[in-house]
Specification:
Largest sheet: 4 strands, antiparallel
Order of helices and strands: EHEEHEHHHHHHHEEH
Helix content: 55-70%
Structural class: alpha+beta
Strand content: 15-25%
Radius of gyration: 20 Å
Number of helices: 10
Mean pLDDT: 84
Number of strands: 6
Length: 252
C-alpha cells in the first residue's frame, strides 16, 4: 500500500476560481508537492507530498501575494492513497467526469453533419470547417466566462503561458478569432496555418503533463468545469491539428 503525506492548510483570500487556480499553481511549483486541491468555498487547501515540507515554505511562496495568508493548519496525517480526494475524483465514472465535453462534441458534430449535407450531397470540407468553427467558438465562450481563472489554470501547463502569463488571456481571443474566421471562411489558408501552429504549440504542454501523470485541471473549458488533464485533452488538440492540416492539403 502506498502511503502519502497529506497536509491541509486554511488559506485566506481565496474568493474566486482565479484565486483557486493561483494557489494551486503556486503550491504545485514547490518541489516535493505531488498534488494540490483547493476548496473554493472554505479556502481549505489539501496538499499531497512526496516528502515532509515545512509550513514556512508555503508561507514564503505566498509572500509576493499578501492577499493570501495561511491562517490554520491540520496536523500531518498519513492516509492511504485510496482515501485521498484524488482517488475519490478518479473513482468517478468516465462518462460523469467528461459529460460536459462529450455533450459539446456531440452537438458540434451533429450541427456540422447537418450543415454539410444541406446541398444534398456530403461536403467534407464544409463539415470540417463548421466543426472547427464550433469548437473554437464554444471553447472560447467558456474561457471568457472567467478569463482570469482560465489564464491561471493555463499557466500551470502551457509552455508559453508558463513564461508569459498574458498569453493565457490572449489565447482565449485567438480561439474566438479562429472560430469567426472559419465560420466566415475568411482567408482560409492563413486561418488554417495559424490554427496548425497555435494548436501544435498548445499540445506540447498537454503531452508533457499527461506523460508525467500530473494531476492538474484541464483549462480547455476555462475555469467553469473541473476537468482533469488526460488523453481526452490530447485528442481535442490533435483533432484540430489534423483537421487544419487536412484542410490545407485538400485546398492544394
Amino acid at each position: 500500500m502506498i502511503i502519502k503525506m497529506i497536509k491541509t492548510y486554511k488559506v485566506s483570500g481565496i474568493t474566486c476560481a482565479g484565486c483557486q487556480a493561483k494557489i494551486k499553481h503556486l503550491f504545485s511549483s514547490i518541489n516535493g508537492v505531488e498534488n494540490v486541491e483547493v476548496d473554493l468555498a472554505t479556502g481549505n487547501t489539501q496538499v499531497q507530498l512526496a516528502q515532509h515540507i515545512d509550513k514556512e515554505v508555503f508561507r514564503e511562496i505566498l509572500k509576493p501575494f499578501p492577499k493570501y495568508q495561511i491562517i490554520d493548519e491540520v496536523i500531518d496525517v498519513p492516509k492511504p492513497k485510496a482515501e485521498t480526494r484524488i482517488e475519490e475524483e478518479s473513482a468517478k465514472s468516465w462518462l460523469v467526469t467528461y459529460k460536459p465535453i462529450l455533450l459539446i462534441f456531440g452537438y458540434i458534430s451533429l450541427i456540422s453533419l447537418i450543415v454539410s449535407n444541406l446541398s444534398g450531397s456530403f461536403d467534407l470540407m464544409l463539415m470540417m470547417r463548421v466543426f472547427m468553427a464550433g469548437f473554437f467558438l464554444v471553447f472560447s465562450f467558456f474561457k471568457m466566462l472567467n478569463l482570469e481563472g482560465f489564464a491561471e489554470s493555463y499557466a500551470m501547463y502551457d509552455v508559453i503561458a508558463k513564461k508569459v502569463k498574458a498569453w493565457g488571456y490572449v489565447y482565449a481571443f485567438v480561439e474566438l478569432g479562429l472560430g469567426l474566421a472559419l465560420l466566415l471562411h475568411f482567408q482560409p489558408v492563413i486561418t488554417h496555418w495559424v490554427t496548425l501552429v497555435v494548436m501544435s504549440v498548445s499540445i506540447i504542454g498537454v503531452l508533457q503533463s499527461v506523460l508525467n501523470k500530473r494531476k492538474i485541471r484541464c483549462a480547455c473549458l476555462g475555469a467553469v468545469f473541473n476537468l482533469p488533464m488526460s488523453t481526452i485533452t490530447i485528442i481535442e488538440d490533435a483533432l484540430m491539428i489534423g483537421m487544419s492540416a487536412a484542410m490545407l492539403v485538400l485546398m492544394y
